[in-house]
Amino acid sequence: MKRGMIPLKCNENTIGKAVKVIESGGIVLLPTETVYGVAGDAYSHDVFTKISILKARPQDKPFPLQVGKAEDVFYLLKKINLTAMLLMKRLWPGALTIIFEGGGDLPSFLKSKDGKIGIRVPDYAPLRLLLTKIGRPLIVTSANKSGEKSPNSLEEVKEEIKKGVDLILDSGKTSLEKESTVVDITKDVPDILREGAVEKESLLDSLSLKKIAFICTGNSCRSVMAKYYLEKIFKNKGIKGIELDSAGIGKVEGLRASSLTLEVLKEEGIDASSHCAEPVTKELVKENDLIVVMGRNHRHFLREEFPESEGKIRLLGDFFVEKSSSSEISDPIGQGKDVYKACLFRIKTGLEGLVKEIIQVRGAFA
């Protein structure tokens, strides 16, 4: 360690010191729940270079990032697929690093040559506090020379590493004493790149997808079309074991599907005449693994009324395979049959993408 530097106990008080060091461009040696790591500002190329030299690591090889909560990753990424969504909801915070496609606005040194980036949310309160106070991602990588064993205690960190940092925090042995598991969800078949603290069985359990709900306003048009048409797709493709539901955010109980909804579905060989509208409830939110909404207003309503829905919600338009000018499915209520048919076409397009991702989830980590 640098001359005169004394390791400090890692707690809420010393995290304030770590914030100042990082904001001034320094590097902090600190514990996580997995191994001891070195941390610095992810957006500083100087910090990236310092850590690369400290670890004797090639500078064309990016470092993993850590963020304070799952929502912080959205602006860093090109997209989040269903596999990632389920892993994030069920295994973050935790010892799981997920490889995503990085967004176009990220500095090139944060991404691999093929545009990928590794991120996790740690399950270690002092580190999450640091990330929250900093308010942006940090490079957090094991405090060792590249290729050497990762340290589980401060005593295991080599003096050369200690001498290259600006602050040292200590909390004894890490709780897991094992590196994070690393998975790549950018591939057609998501893969485990490094087995670590999260075992394969836990990964597979986290991808359980047993119930999907479609939400619109009145539960008489869009969500009805989506539910019944997906049932048809599942039957044709032999996809079993997923229950489908639908509901509306308005006062909808007892409403029937609109006549034009029934008509355009009938032309697809689908009978939805037995449909009876239901309102969104706390139970529905709890029971469903995925909640697919038609518009941002539905997403906003769910987040406000049912905070526990966070991490489960996707716009159906997010599943479009081809880019669209809008990811919203407009309400056709009160308009003509042509509008209903156009609405169903967009719903079908979104469902095709959703089914593709469901198949990807079921084949993950095979």
How would you characterize this protein structure?
With 366 residues, this protein is an alpha/beta fold. The protein has two domains: 8-206, DHBP synthase; 211-363, Rossmann fold. Helix content is 33%, strand content 17%. It has eleven helices and 14 strands. The chain has helices spanning 12-23, 45-54, 82-91, 125-134, 159-162, 200-206, 222-237, 259-266, 282-287, 296-305, 337-363, and strands spanning 8-9, 28-31, 36-41, 65-66, 96-101, 116-120, 138-142, 167-170, 181-184, 191-194, 211-216, 243-248, 290-293, 313-315. The strands form two sheets. A ten-stranded mixed β-sheet has the order 1-8-2-3-7-4-6-5-9-10, with helices on both faces. Strand 9 (181-184) and strand 10 (191-194) form a beta hairpin. Helix 1 (12-23) crosses helix 4 and helix 7 packs across helix 11. It is elongated and about 75 Å long.
Structure, briefly:
The protein has helices at 12-23, 45-54, 82-91, 125-134, 159-162, 200-206, 222-237, 259-266, 282-287, 296-305, 337-363; strands at 8-9, 28-31, 36-41, 65-66, 96-101, 116-120, 138-142, 167-170, 181-184, 191-194, 211-216, 243-248, 290-293, 313-315. The chain is α/β, with parallel strands linked by helices and 366 residues long.
Topology:
Elements: E1 8-9, H1 12-23, E2 28-31, E3 36-41, H2 45-54, E4 65-66, H3 82-91, E5 96-101, E6 116-120, H4 125-134, E7 138-142, H5 159-162, E8 167-170, E9 181-184, E10 191-194, H6 200-206, E11 211-216, H7 222-237, E12 243-248, H8 259-266, H9 282-287, E13 290-293, H10 296-305, E14 313-315, H11 337-363
Parallel strand pairs: 1-8, 2-8, 4-6, 5-9, 11-12, 11-13, 13-14
Antiparallel strand pairs: 2-3, 3-7, 4-7, 5-6, 9-10
Helix pairs in contact: 1-4, 7-11, 8-11
